[in-house]
Design a protein that fits this description.
This protein is α/β, with parallel strands linked by helices and about 200 residues long. It has 6 helices and 7 strands. A hairpin with a 5-residue loop joins strand 5 and strand 6. The longest helix is centred in the N-terminal third of the chain and has 15 residues.
Length: about 200
Amino acid sequence: MQAQPRNSPAPRLILASASPRRRELLGRVGIIPEAIAAADIDETPEAQELPRAYAQRMAREKALAVSGNGAHVLAGDTVVAVGRRILPKAEDVTTARACLQLLSGRRHHVLSAVAVKRPDGTLRERLSDTIVRFKALSTQEIEDYLAGGEWDGKAGGYAIQGSAEGLIAWISGSHSGVVGLPLFETRALLRSAGFALG
């Protein structure tokens, strides 16, 4: 957990994620976590686990893995899925290329789950389901995108907040959910969990 300055008040909100994208998204709507605590959990999908259930389980387990100490704990997880198939986070260019080739010219779902653990330990959850369709990508377009490195560590091998947005034909749902945290659902969830929004 991020250290708190001496004599500082106890945190009201802990973000159970080290993702700078999630911190940036929260800041856009005036929500500033007082502490960051990346949850250390096994993120391996279970056998036959469907994408929606997997995203929800990951967000839930991340929230539960972080000690709140009287604060609300916010966690999220984003999954890119084609049908029943969960696409990996691209850790190498070969994986990223395979993801983009699969996504080329077709629709896919981006499932962004959010969980809030209240100070009393109870959980509240929401899920955003966004449909995204890439244009039919040429080999050169894929290679140009890969050369930029934006795919690194991204679910499905792309980051919508970067140059990939110029390759997306249409989107139906939450743009912020595709980035990594659906802001509408997150604000509603925090409010319903008793967290006072500014």
